[in-house]
Amino acid sequence: xxxxxxxxxxxxxxxxxxxxxxxxxxxxxxxxxxxxxxxxxxxxxxxxxxxxxxxxxxxxxxxxxxxxxxxxxxxxxxxxxxxxxxxxxxxxxxxxxxxxxxxxxxxxxxxxxxxxxxxxxxxxxxxxxxxxxxxxxxxxxxxxxxxxxxxxxxxxxxxxxxxxxxxxxxxxxxxxxxxxxxxxxxxxxxxxxxxxxxxxxxxxxxxxxxxxxxxxxxxxxxxxxxxxxxxxxxxxxxxxxxxxxxxxxxxxxxxxxxxxxxxxxxxxxxxxxxxxxxxxxxxxxxxxxxxxxxxxxxxxxxxxxxxxxxxxxxxxxxxxxxxxxxxxxxxxxxxxxxxxxxxxxxxxxxxxxxxxxxxxxxxxxxxxxxxxxxxxxxxxxxxxxxxxxxxxxxxxxxxxxxxxxxxxxxxxxxxxxxxx
Length: 420
Ligand code: ADP
Hints:
Elements: H1 3-31, H2 35-49, E1 52-60, E2 67-71, E3 83-87, H3 93-100, E4 104-106, H4 117-123, E5 130-137, E6 140-150, H5 157-225, H6 228-253, E7 266-270, H7 271-288, E8 292-296, E9 303-307, H8 308-324, E10 331-338, E11 342-349, H9 383-393, E12 397-401, E13 409-416
Parallel strand pairs: 8-10
Antiparallel strand pairs: 1-2, 1-6, 2-3, 4-5, 5-6, 7-9, 10-11, 11-13, 12-13
Helix pairs in contact: 1-2, 1-5, 2-5, 5-6, 7-8, 8-9
Bound molecules: adenosine-5'-diphosphate.
Adenosine-5'-diphosphate binds near residues 352 and 384.
């Protein structure tokens, strides 16, 4: 074998090793989401493939346009030992590569006035030769990748190709990692905000409830005792206080809009018992409106496996609506229909009714049939969307029926029987 043949074979073997390493590091860059890991692997692979003593990355802050030199000191393989040193954009080699968006090949760095010695001093490294390429995402330059101190000969033509491939893959990997960090940060901020909102609602509704209890108590007492005009005034106070109580309930119940099956506190619930609790909850409102209210309980009683507190809240809400949207002296009824697989709890009223086109819309959060500015009835438009969430968490359904304006409405909550 001649010397010439063996040197060609050597070159081929080296190229093959480099390509293998390039594939290996590409796979890693594609899968890693840690900036430090990406940088460490990138510099490691760049130095190895280009047969250089070291490699460094200079990253540009996209907002401030400040450059930061990131390097792995010789002999260190630990990501946490990476050094980061600020580099001027003007007059430095890295600044040139980034601003001009061009590679640079220097066999003797000491002859180049753009060499920023500070980085050598701080990283304890002496730069003799350098090959640097821009790191780009499409046309945007995000930094530079530099291989430093070629071992043995001069930089070779393939070196630049290899470094450019590594730089473009790393740029995308770094951007991806940065986006993940931002996303995680935004997620944490969002959950903090959400907690703040929930705490605020919980505290505000609790603080509002105490004085409201006093108002409700005295207004009921006055309504019972007072006659004539004073009695009418007491009625008005009681009505307004009851509306306010419903608003506070809606605020408190906002968190149930996202209730899931796994969060339910299921227990054996007797429907007859539950309906008596509903009666207790809405009694004051019904009598303030002189409406008739009756319950047709299931015969025999039906027991379901459900979240008692949430079902009570849901049914109370539906009956509250029936009371609210039914004129004085109107009729409201709850009846239970026991079916083979499910039980239907129907709330029937002879109130203002619902146009056919709105029957599905009213289950959307904050949706109200009447325009918000001109509406006569209070409320936040949340009750039915919470009722739907509670029904679905129980694997049940809820729907509304109405023959139209002034024809009354029927709301049916269907819940599966048995141990779902
Ligand atoms: P809110 O009662 O606070 O407005 P809901 O989500 O409970 O919110 O109800 C949404 C809308 O559905 C109401 O604003 C009303 O337009 C309509 N609605 C609900 N129940 C009835 C009912 N029994 N009769 C007529 N309309 C109703």
